[in-house]
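User: I'm writing a short methods note and want a consistent example. For 16S rRNA (Guanine966-N2)-methyltransferase, I'll paste the sequence; you return only the structure tokens, no commentary, since I'll be parsing the reply automatically.
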Amino acid sequence: MSRIIAGAAGGSPLVSVPGDGTRPTTDRVKEALFSRLEAMNMLSDTRVLDLYAGSGSLGVESASRGAKSVELVEFNDKAAAVCQRNAELVNKVAGSKVVTVQRSRVESFLARVAEAGVDQWDLVFIDPPYPLTEIELALVLELLAPRLSPFAVVVVERSARTPQPTWPAGLALFADKKYGETRLWFAEPAGDPTNPSV
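Assistant:
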């Protein structure tokens, strides 16, 4: 059973998505990822976007650890309902609506926020299902790049057997790490030297 690892809601069990339509991040990878993000001071008081959220595990972990706001974007009905339940758990602990859920296709969501000119995000998780093509992922990254704050970090989680994502002009890779069958890629707004390479 997956759980929130640390923070205000640390130790709380998370509802999982029934069936095999999602690929949850393992607790081992999640612990390593969030240790790295905490070392980079990327969790406290940040605006977080969790795309292809699945159960919302990465987003609610961020909220538990002090994120200012978290948006979970998930199109699948069952997964979106699970996101809502996990969001409610963290919001109850926080005493406010820190986590919100958007039932939407990722591309549609990003197109809408671009038109609306909404606030930019500081930390973005992209953990798409394996069938998503590299071309589709590149489009998502291109739509996302203009909506990032100057010191943002984008984390892409994919199978270790997939190629490095194609980064648009507004994003640059600064680190990657393999954990068994999973690889994480870390990118930042291009031309911003202040995010540390680790």
